[in-house]
Design goal:
The complex is a heterodimer. Chain A is mainly alpha-helical. Helices cover 70% and strands 0% of the residues of chain A. In chain A, helix 4 packs across helix 8. Classes of the chains: A mainly alpha, B alpha+beta. The interface between A and B is medium-sized, with 19 and 24 residues.
């Protein structure tokens, strides 16, 4: 449908700009606040223009964190978050691609039972099973460790299903051709299935990296040591509620920094990401 | 180079029997085509030879060695699939080389074989392309190339031309046949297209419902089909069948027409099916016994196909010289030479003469 009505185009654009403004404004304000003196923010004299400290707050945040109440330096928190997001994303992809491969390409007893067991866990999000999970992690002595932070979040029914659907589109003849070409299950996985799943893996990586990066509830429970703080949870810890003043300039700078890695991942993977969601390479 | 031998091969899925005992010997360098309607078990049979399906009963031997328990890769066969089954992410070169690499062949030997095959198949300029950048015919050739470089004991073809358009199919048919001749590799070729089967085969196996109805050279099957099924399947347009009654060496058709037959045992008598190929009727022959009321004419140029109804009932297709003038609605007198008559038992469908 090709239309050429200037008025409706104008209205459409106006609505889009409004939407963008609504999304961008808080982010912009965060950025502005991150460049001001702390006093200006608290006084309410900050205004809508960037202040006179374009970098100082960021440097302070990265290497020292908040001072009023002592927080972990942001660099360390970002490191923690990065480890967590990467381990979760890569772990989820690795585990689910293997289980989907087993479910689709092998005939073994109780195959469908295992498939449905995986499927059913979709109905149990982290929040629902959080107490038993916490209990296990704590009994295994994994509190305040990267293992405790990541392993319980690695199992993924969604990713398994996604890979399963993709594997089902691989024609049987391809599997048979590989058999005749002398490729065993391992070789077929490495030489055919993995390269064909490249775009799917990229799309999943973007989604799962952001999922891991944004985890809040789980780090809140399993980490008590400040040195293990992830950045998303760490921001919350920087905000003081009662007897001291919050270092808003540092909090804002931290917030900006917290947004950067997911944005970077999306930009870096955008081409593959879109390809993975839209087309199946056959 | 090798022989392939099937002895009493059967296949069941649970209690459902799909192949009821096939015996077949393929000589060294021979191209045997298995032809039949869909669901007759021809692909299953081929897949059993390839090792992709387990054999329920019987033995399959390649080059004298029973391979029932061998993995596909250890049978030294190469297969060409209907949808080509090329690895989409590999270049043409890698597609052909993959099987050789898995066998741990030396790099320069792989290179030599792939380039030689590419030369033969006119793929030399396309070696760096991905399958999706190729046309259907080119993909088909890559699939052939993948089979050739292996230098296997036998080629197995599973309807390799079905995904091509009509013109390309005819062209590839010739190419495959030539190549098979040139390489002299024993081949088993499955198709549902009887023209493909007739033109390519050294010998033909006509399968129906899990049974080999007849095995023979294309001309044997054309001239002396063993059953009504084979008679109807081989030849295009297909054979006409008319109900008749055999007694004393003469077959009587509906409407009182009677035609003398030979070859049948003189004592044989009873209800029969008379088979007449469209190309074996002669318009205006002396004493022509069949009167055909012409209903439709298809002019193909060199010949015309006449569809009509016989006096006394029954439909008949005739194929006659294209230059003969015939009008729709006219009545045509058609003669049949006795040696071109096929007689089948009505009940069993087996050949009588």
């Amino acid at each position: 449908m090709v239309e050429n009505r200037p008025l409706s185009t104008l209205i459409a654009h106006a609505i889009l700009w409004m939407g963008i403004a609504i999304v961008v404004f808080p982010v912009y304000l965060t950025f502005v606040a991150s460049t001001h003196e702390p006093a200006e923010i608290v006084n309410g004299t900050m205004g809508f223009l960037p202040g006179g400290l374009p970098l100082q707050n960021y440097v302070d945040a990265l290497f020292t964190g908040t001072k009023q109440i002592k927080s972990t330096p942001v660099l360390q928190m970002m490191g923690n978050s990065l480890v967590m997001a990467l381990v979760i994303a890569i772990g989820k992809i690795a585990i689910s691609i293997i289980s989907a491969y087993a479910v689709v390409f092998f005939r073994f007893p109780f195959r469908m039972f295992f498939f449905w067991t995986i499927f059913v866990t979709l109905m149990l999000p982290v929040e629902v099973r959080i107490y038993p999970t916490y209990k296990i992690v704590s009994d295994l002595g994994m509190l305040n460790t990267y293992a405790g932070l990541t392993i319980p979040l690695i199992a993924s029914a969604t990713a398994t299903l996604l890979f399963r659907q993709f594997f089902l589109t691989i024609p049987d003849e391809l599997v048979e051709a590989a058999k005749i070409d002398g490729a065993g299950p391992m070789k077929f996985f490495r030489d055919v299935v993995l390269p064909l799943s490249r775009t799917n893996m990229a799309a999943l990586f973007v989604i799962l990296f952001i999922y891991g990066w944004n985890q809040y509830l789980w780090p809140l429970l399993v980490t008590t040591d400040a040195s293990m703080d992830t950045i998303v949870y760490g921001i919350r810890r920087m905000i003081v509620t009662s007897d001291a003043q919050t270092d808003w300039h540092i909090v804002m700078a931290t917030t900006m920094l917290a947004m950067l890695p997911p944005v970077f991942v999306v930009f870096a993977m955008q081409k593959l990401f879109v390809k993975g969601l839209v087309e199946t390479e056959k | 180079m090798a022989t392939v031998e099937l002895k009493g091969v059967r296949k069941s899925y649970g209690t459902t029997r799909v192949i009821h005992g096939i015996d077949l010997e393929i000589a060294d360098g021979e191209l045997v085509v298995i032809v039949g309607p869909s669901g007759c078990g021809k692909s299953t049979l081929l897949r059993m030879v390839a090792g992709l399906e387990a054999i329920t009963e019987g033995t399959i031997a390649i080059d004298g060695a029973v391979v029932n328990q061998r993995e596909p890769k250890d049978r030294d066969i190469a297969m060409v699939f209907q949808n080509y089954a090329l690895y989409p992410h590999m270049s043409v070169y890698d597609n052909m080389a993959y099987g050789l690499r898995n066998r741990g062949m030396a790099k320069d030997e792989i290179d030599r074989r792939v380039r030689a095959a590419a030369q033969t198949l006119e793929l030399a300029a396309l070696l760096d392309r991905k399958p999706r950048q190729l046309s259907g015919g080119q993909r088909q050739r890559v699939a052939m190339g993948r089979a050739i470089v292996r230098e296997p004991k036998a080629f197995l073809f599973d309807e390799p031309l079905s995904n091509l358009d009509a013109k390309l199919r005819v062209q590839m048919r010739v190419e495959i046949k030539k190549l098979q001749r040139q390489l002299g590799v024993t081949s088993l070729y499955v198709t549902h297209d009887q023209v493909e089967a007739m033109t390519m085969a050294d010998r033909l196996v006509v399968m129906n419902a899990g049974v080999a109805e007849q095995i023979g050279t294309p001309m044997e099957l054309y001239a002396r089909p063993a059953s009504v099924f084979v008679a109807g399947f081989i030849g295009s347009p297909s054979m006409n069948f008319l109900p008749g009654r055999l007694a004393g060496g003469v077959v009587g058709l509906a409407g009182g027409t009677s035609i003398p037959v030979n070859g049948a045992a003189p004592s044989a008598a009873g209800e029969v099916t008379v088979g007449i190929r469209p190309e074996h009727v002669e318009p205006g022959a002396p004493g022509a016994p069949l009167k055909l009321k012409v209903e439709l004419i298809e002019r193909l140029g060199s010949e015309s196909l006449i569809y009509g109804r016989l006096e006394g009932g029954g439909e008949l297709t005739a194929r006659i010289d294209g230059e003969r003038e015939i009008a729709t609605g006219a009545t045509l007198a058609l003669g049949v030479t006795t040696r071109h008559l096929h007689l089948f038992d009505r009940a069993s469908g087996k050949r009588l003469n």
